[in-house]
Design goal:
7 strands, Alpha/beta knot, alpha/beta, 160 residues, seven-stranded parallel sheet
Length: 160
């Protein structure tokens, strides 16, 4: 399973998602252009030293990402979804795709997704923070498919 970020805008969100990916073993695809330099200190600070422990790939365009994409479904997390997170069945080779914080994804990208999934929330609210959405979706995907490796439960006391 992978996480893909389509043209992320906010370096702190990207850093936090890279940290999440390192902790749970998700490779990450970052589809450029980004709204910041990938060397941005704010991204590195948000990811702390975890960034060095994640397998991540830069793609200079959506087209390049599609050319290099591995097998499996492209699952777009979006407010304009066909399915709700609690009703969707993930597969171990899915790529979880997240759009820009400011604009989501363009129609072309939306239409290219094999599935569109929404995280349920209170009506009348627009959306969750990107890093929060990635965390919720990643956890549910892992809960359904298994971690793929032995991860002991966190028992507290050593939070960073």
């Amino acid at each position: 399973m992978r996480i893909a970020l389509y043209q992320p805008d906010i370096p702190q969100n990207t850093g936090t998602i890279l940290r999440l990916a390192a902790c749970f073993g998700f490779p990450v695809d970052i589809i450029e252009p980004c709204g910041f330099a990938l060397s941005d200190a704010r991204m590195r600070r948000a990811g702390m030293d975890y960034i060095d422990h994640v397998d991540w790939t830069r793609h200079n365009s959506w087209e390049r990402f599609l050319e290099q994409r591995r097998s499996g479904r492209l699952v777009l997390l979006t407010t304009k979804a066909d399915s709700s997170l609690q009703d969707f069945t993930f597969k171990a080779d899915d790529t979880l795709l997240f759009g820009q914080e400011s604009a989501g994804v363009p129609e072309e990208v939306h239409n290219r997704a094999d599935a569109r999934v929404a995280i349920p929330m209170q009506s009348g609210l627009r959306s969750l923070n990107l890093a929060v959405s990635a965390s919720i979706a990643a956890w549910e995907a892992l809960r359904q498919t298994g971690f793929g490796h032995d991860v002991p439960p966190h028992t507290g006391g050593d939070l960073a």
